[in-house]
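Example record used in the benchmark description.
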Amino acid sequence: MTDEFDPVAALHEHLAATEERPVEREAGWRIGEAQALAAEIAAGADEETVVRRAGEIRTLLAEVDGTDDAEADDHVAAARELADRIANRPDDE
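Model output (C-alpha cells):
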C-alpha cells in the first residue's frame, strides 16, 4: 500500500503557485531558486538527492521573511513544512 500524498510533488506545487503572485523581489529570487530545486526532485531523483535538495530548499525558504503577498506567504509556509518533513526523512522511508 502506498501513501497517496506525495510531499515532493506538493512541495513543488506550493512553490509553483507563487509564480504569478506579486512577491517582493528578494523573496521572489529565493523562492524561484527553491522552485527550481523542487522541480528537479519532483521530476524524479534518488532518495539521497531528494533529501539533500529538500535541505537546500529549506535553507532558501528560511531566508524569506515575507513576500508582501498573503497568498504567497501561505504557500511559502506550507513549502517550508514540506521541505522540513522531506529533509528529515528516516533513511529507511
